[in-house]
Amino acid sequence: MVITGVGLLSACGSNEDVHLAALLDEKRPVADGVSFAPFHLVKAAPFDAEDFVPGRSDRRQMEPWQLLGVAAAKLALDSAGIPPGDERDSLCLNLAANGGGREHDMDLAVLDELLVRGDPQAGLVESMSKRIRPSFLLGQLANLLAGNIAIVLGVGGGARTFMGEEHAGVEALEDAVSRIVAGQSDRILVGGVLDADRAELMFALATGGLLHAGTMPAVFNPDRNGLCPGSMAAFVLVEAEEVARARAVPPLARITGIKAAWTGGVDGQDALRGCISALPHGGDATLILSGASGAQPSTTEEWAALEGRSKDARILATADVAGHGLEASFPFAVALAALSIQAGAAERVLTTTGSDRCGVAAALLEAAP
Question: Which has the closest alpha carbon to 350: 359, 336, 342?
Fold first, then answer.
């Protein structure tokens, strides 16, 4: 399989050059430490939505995360040279996004009441039955975005959507690779999106103890003990190599292998080492792009698995570039890896991710001859 198109939109901007500069030259955006102090987030750079979604009615019904996703998907399709028409009509889509927004003010009101009630458990049951309204669309944001991409960009080959934080992005790519290997599809658009600038998301991460408070050190700094979410969308077009060459499109990079593992009952460090070792060339690379979030203990475990892995490999944390993208973090790392190879900055790139709760994964990309 090869990657023939990349679409990135984050705090770095909306083109490939600015993302490469942020990754390799450390020209990186500054995190916002005011909006949700003492926590930080990285907001996406402004972009003109009309350039990507020309219909005013379409733009009006989309929220920021939808506009991010459609814009990045269009960038990937344009990068790969897939024009509107028959090629998009049969193009499949694999998309990772989170479970959607909650009524933040209502949640806070319920929690305030529970703090002063003599029987919080009974109060919670009462609130859930009378005040916290179920939402049919609460877990369907990925499906909504898939519909937006189908309508606006004409991607009509069917969509598979994935939820589950970092591992959702892993499964989106893993599923695409498996289907292309099996001959079930020639090409699949794979991506993820996160709008981090949401009160209910920051609240959920904070109550889970996953956010770093105060001055924000680098991801692998020993003083780092939480993540800094980043708004981003990342898409790659994955094709069978013979199909790409038949339409005379030069691949950006070849996907040599991808391996994922669940970590239930297994040390994350050992699980990640096992994934890397199972890749071609034993996972040896000249550049390592880590999707570590900064949360502990998974970040320390990931560093231990990566340090000294390849003698001359440079190790970079993608969360230091544009924040941590949760569902979008793995597609973001893979897209950066493809751009690094295309630019000649690396011949072989290892991308990894260590989820804080469910699993680890690694993928190897190399230059396509």
Answer: 336
The token pair that represents 57 in the structure block: 């009615």
Q: Are 7 and 233 in contact (CB under 8 A)?
A: yes
The dihedral region occupied by 317, where left means phi > 0, alpha psi between -120 and 50, and beta the remainder, is beta
Q: Please report, for residues 29, 33, 304, 340, 352, the alpha-carbon distance to residue 309 in angstroms, rounded to integers and kept in the order given.
A: 29, 34, 9, 19, 12
What is the distance between the alpha carbons of residues 32 and 24, in angstroms, rounded to a whole number? 22
For residue 160, give the DSSP letter: E
Residue at 122: amino acid letter: A
- Is residue 191 within 8 A of residue 234, CB to CB? The reply is yes
- Fill in the amino acid letter for 233: A
Q: Which CATH class is domain 2-101+138-366?
A: alpha beta
What residue spans define the domains of the chain?
2-101+138-366
Residue type at position 185: S
CA distance 301 to 285: 19
Comparing CA positions, the residue from 244, 349, 181, 179 lying closest to residue 4 is 244
pLDDT in tens, 174-222: 999 999 999 999 999 999 999 999 988 898 899 889 999 999 999 999 9
* Terminal-to-terminal C-alpha distance of the chain: 13
Model pTM score: 0.93
Query: What DSSP designation does 229 have?
Result: B
Q: Is 4 helix (H, G, I), strand (E, B) or coil?
A: strand
Nearest-10 crossing angle of helices 120-130, 104-116? 150
Q: Write the single-letter amino acid at 1.
A: M
- Look up residue 238 and give its two tokens: 């994955």
